[in-house]
């Protein structure tokens, strides 16, 4: 038997758990959270590689409605963030709503019943509304490297770390130089025999000013909760002030770039290695990475930096684009995720029978980062153009939760219950008008043109296959919160179920 719920939330990371908490706070308890794994946590469950930590301060990278006075460090590690999400799950009573081992295989809009028919690996569900919170960093991407299948050793992605495979004394190849790689390299460098870093594009790296949060600080935050709010507010305000440099005046980032060069020069004395590690694009074009141990690790005698990226595998011999060869026992891919081509999009079938992937074949776009035209009563958390380059995604998630809450309130108002005369509209649905979606996307893309992400001279995972930035929000988090505070019904078409006859109502 299929379970019918008012809302089905997909995913139990920050977005999914945040949606679940907000639903309960809105008085909605008829919902499920569909999770493909066996526990909550999302990307903070999946990414358990050595050195994994957040590059946003802990007091900002947490829900405003669930402050944690006991963060152990200013930049907390994966285990602490995952424990926080488990804590949120328990404190807000979310366990009864969780459906583990329930990976969405297909969800199809039923235009007659005005509901979603959801097939999962754990059963079938009907839902009046779907909130998709699968997240853009959930499905790892491994490039198609010729000969990779001939490699005799172990191969895995950073987001699927094999903890049973001991790297001690091994020759390890690290492919990629993104946020995961710069944490993995210094964590494993002391234990491996040789570490070869295959670098396609060097990142800009700034020091990570991390420290333990003292017992006195934590006691203060527990005794006086407003001090936690003050700390969060200061962290937020500083980042809001930085936004204009990224979005309107990229030339102002020159000073930051100078500081990054000085940071590299202090740690890397070899001019040849420094040349390899110096980017040729404006700082901020790709995400600025934070680490105080990455550069020192690269100077160790058991580490080689190979430029050009991995281009071919010949058995245990790895060949770089510049022809350099290296022997390896293990290959670790830190090559990112399917961000602009999320696999979930192939599994969502809208009102006209097209999948979301087909609808987005020319690029992702959603009204206020939430609603896609032709997919009624379907919303996404961390949707197109809601990403950030310098602040906490939790701020954006909470803004989208405000939008979700008002969306559901509007559906309540629009849904007409059966009346005494035997007629009634029953449930209602909202479908984003294509004109509204296109108008919103056009405004976003117009603002994007002068940002550092588009003008900085790099190729990043923010850009889709057409070179369009469909990932980042080109403004402040405050602007986004104002834009998502209320649902504008003029931007939606209202769909209603066929009117019921009196005998059907009373049956």
UniProtKB/TrEMBL annotation:
<dbReference type="InterPro" id="IPR036188">
    <property type="entry name" value="FAD/NAD-bd_sf"/>
</dbReference>
<comment type="function">
    <text>Catalyzes a Baeyer-Villiger oxidation reaction, i.e. the insertion of an oxygen atom into a carbon-carbon bond adjacent to a carbonyl, which converts ketones to esters or lactones using NADPH and/or NADH as an electron donor. Thus, can convert bicyclo[3.2.0]hept-2-en-6-one into the oxidative lactone products 2-oxabicyclo[3.3.0]oct-6-en-3-one and 3-oxabicyclo[3.3.0]oct-6-en-2-one. Is also able to catalyze the sulfoxidation of methyl phenyl sulfide (thioanisole).</text>
</comment>
<dbReference type="GO" id="GO:0004499">
    <property type="term" value="F:N,N-dimethylaniline monooxygenase activity"/>
</dbReference>
<protein>
    <recommendedName>
        <fullName>Baeyer-Villiger monooxygenase</fullName>
    </recommendedName>
</protein>
<keyword id="KW-0285">Flavoprotein</keyword>
<comment type="similarity">
    <text>Belongs to the FAD-binding monooxygenase family.</text>
</comment>
<keyword id="KW-0503">Monooxygenase</keyword>
<keyword id="KW-0521">NADP</keyword>
<dbReference type="InterPro" id="IPR020946">
    <property type="entry name" value="Flavin_mOase-like"/>
</dbReference>
<dbReference type="Pfam" id="PF00743">
    <property type="entry name" value="FMO-like"/>
</dbReference>
<keyword id="KW-0560">Oxidoreductase</keyword>
<keyword id="KW-0274">FAD</keyword>
<dbReference type="GO" id="GO:0050660">
    <property type="term" value="F:flavin adenine dinucleotide binding"/>
</dbReference>
<dbReference type="InterPro" id="IPR051209">
    <property type="entry name" value="FAD-bind_Monooxygenase_sf"/>
</dbReference>
<dbReference type="GO" id="GO:0050661">
    <property type="term" value="F:NADP binding"/>
</dbReference>
């Amino acid at each position: 038997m299929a379970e019918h719920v008012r809302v089905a939330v997909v995913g139990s990371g920050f977005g999914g758990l945040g949606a679940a908490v907000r639903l309960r706070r809105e008085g909605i308890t008829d919902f499920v959270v569909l999770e493909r794994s066996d526990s909550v946590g999302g990307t903070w469950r999946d990414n358990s590689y050595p050195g994994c930590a957040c590059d946003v301060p802990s007091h900002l990278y947490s829900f405003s409605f669930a402050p944690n006075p006991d963060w152990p460090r200013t930049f907390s590690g994966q285990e602490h963030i995952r424990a926080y999400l488990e804590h949120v799950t328990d404190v807000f009573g979310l366990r009864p709503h969780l459906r583990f081992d329930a990976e969405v295989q297909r969800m199809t809009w039923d235009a007659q019943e005005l509901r979603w028919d959801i097939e999962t690996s754990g059963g079938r569900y009907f839902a009046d509304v779907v909130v998709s919170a699968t997240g853009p960093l959930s499905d790892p991407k491994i490039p198609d490297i010729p000969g990779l299948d001939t490699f005799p050793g172990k191969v895995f992605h950073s987001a699927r770390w094999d903890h049973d495979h001991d790297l001690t004394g091994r020759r390890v190849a690290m492919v990629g130089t993104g946020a995961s790689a710069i944490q993995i390299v210094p964590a494993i460098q002391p234990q491996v025999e040789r570490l070869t870093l295959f670098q396609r594009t060097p990142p800009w790296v700034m020091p990570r000013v991390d420290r333990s949060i003292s017992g006195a600080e934590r006691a203060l935050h527990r005794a006086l909760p407003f001090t936690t709010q003050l700390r969060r507010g200061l962290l937020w305000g500083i980042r809001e002030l930085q936004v204009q440099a990224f979005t309107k005046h990229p030339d102002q980032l020159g000073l930051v770039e100078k500081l990054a060069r000085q940071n590299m020069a202090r740690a890397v004395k070899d001019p040849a290695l420094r040349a390899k590690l110096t980017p040729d694009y404006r700082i901020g074009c790709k995400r600025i990475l934070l680490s105080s141990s990455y550069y020192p690790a690269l100077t160790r005698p058991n580490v080689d930096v190979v430029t050009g990226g991995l281009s071919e595998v010949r058995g245990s011999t790895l060949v770089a684009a510049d022809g350099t060869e290296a022997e390896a026992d293990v290959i670790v891919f830190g090559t990112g995720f399917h961000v602009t081509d999320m696999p979930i999009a192939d599994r969502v079938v809208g009102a006209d029978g097209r999948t979301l992937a087909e609808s987005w074949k020319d690029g992702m776009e959603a009204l206020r980062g939430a609603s896609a035209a032709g997919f009624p009563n379907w919303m996404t958390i961390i949707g197109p153009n809601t990403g950030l380059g310098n602040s906490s995604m939790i701020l954006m998630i909470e803004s989208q939760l405000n939008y979700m809450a008002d969306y559901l309130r509007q559906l309540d108002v629009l849904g007409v219950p059966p009346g005494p005369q035997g007629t009634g509209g029953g449930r209602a649905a909202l479908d984003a008008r294509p004109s509204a979606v296109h108008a919103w996307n056009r405004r976003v893309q117009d603002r994007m043109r002068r940002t550092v992400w588009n003008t900085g001279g790099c190729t990043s995972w923010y850009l889709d296959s057409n070179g369009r930035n469909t990932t980042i929000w080109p403004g402040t988090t405050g602007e986004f919160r104002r834009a998502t505070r209320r649902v504008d019904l003029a931007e939606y078409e209202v769909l209603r179920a066929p009117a019921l006859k009196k005998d059907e109502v009373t049956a």
